[in-house]
Amino acid sequence: MKSLLKILKWTAIVLLGLPVLIYLVWLTGNLKHDALSPEVTELLARRPAQMNEKDNAYFDIIGLGAPDNQNPHEWGASWFVQASTNDSAYLAGKSVTPIKLEGYPASSQRAKLPCSNKDSKHACLEEVMSDRVAAKKYLDAEAILLRRFDALLDQDYQEPYHPVMSDFPPFAPELRAVTLARIRIALEIAEGKDSAAIAQWGRETAFLLRQAEHSHSVVDKMICIAALNHHQELLAEYLSTHPQAARAQTKQLLPMLNLYIQSAVTLKPAFESEAAFFARLLVNSNESIGILTEGGEFGKKVANILSDPFLDRQATVNEAVKNLLEWSHIAELGGDAYRTALAKMAAQTPDIIDATFSYHNPVGKILIQVGNNDFSKYLYKSDNIIANKKLLAFTLGLIARQATSSEQIAQALAAQSAELQHPFTGEAPAWNAKQRTLGYSTPAQFKESNAKPVVIKL
Question: Are 112 and 40 within one domain?
């Protein structure tokens, strides 16, 4: 009897213990972190092209809002040094020191400018023409900011390398300077100084395109694209309201439009840079990522403290970079292949994932998916710049040939429909004979946003 019990005991130990032993061995392997993918390794080692700080207008842009008695470039360089120090500290898990510079952050209490109200019923040129005296007052009041902007227009630009963006650059003065520049162009047109306005317009366009081409972060790139779009809106209004003057300025306007090239506004490097930012942030930082958000504040804090040791940062980075590189790949496509890839991504909405967080646990890995970043809106805004350029050049050609009857416009559209296709939709612009407007239709998903191509009235 004792022998039988002994046999049963060891049989039970073998039958029950062996699976437990196998599980423990498996669990030990499961707790091992994934290796970084080759794509992530390459991204982390990559550095954008750099240029000499003294020759780089990036620092002048950053310093546009510096106090009047300080050098904008030196102020901008000082800001960047402090921001870079904070980036390094953040990645090392050390405390970040607030940037200390006179005039930073810039005051938000500034008078609202013409040409800056999205909800305004009047376009920029119309708004300025309705009150030229007020427009002059705005320009005079901020003459220093405008002079600083003019001083950098012929310089080269390169957004410098920063591993993460722990401090956002002071963008407000740059946005304000570009708006003031548009007001000045509109005012000169209102005063009949078209040639001088277009010459200045060309300088600004050339600089904004250089800035866009040599920006590598999404935020810097999109600020440039927004500025370029506003300049194109103003040109569309000029062609609509001053066709005869525009006809006389064709030789100046066409070279300006020819500056718009796809390589200046492509988002491929920006998406890759965004992927690198995220990878560095998660791989190098020891801070809690705070991804568990259910429950009260105390409960969330405790849950994140307990869960962070099980976070597989490398697996998380691999998954996130894979998604962002897919957008990067889409950004370099063209034609039907581009639109097919966009449609494939759109079919996944609302399941497009900004980041997938991988946690070790007793049954394998749990993947917590967060975010819903659909980058198609960014691509659409970028594509609008190229589509607008096509439409503006086409319209200028009609005006130059004085071919603006409905029949002539319809014939020209039919003859050039393939060349005029919008990169994002593949559609040519439409002519509304009743309203006498020429423009691209806006995709349904963007109708409620400000991401719309220009419309020209002939």
Answer: yes
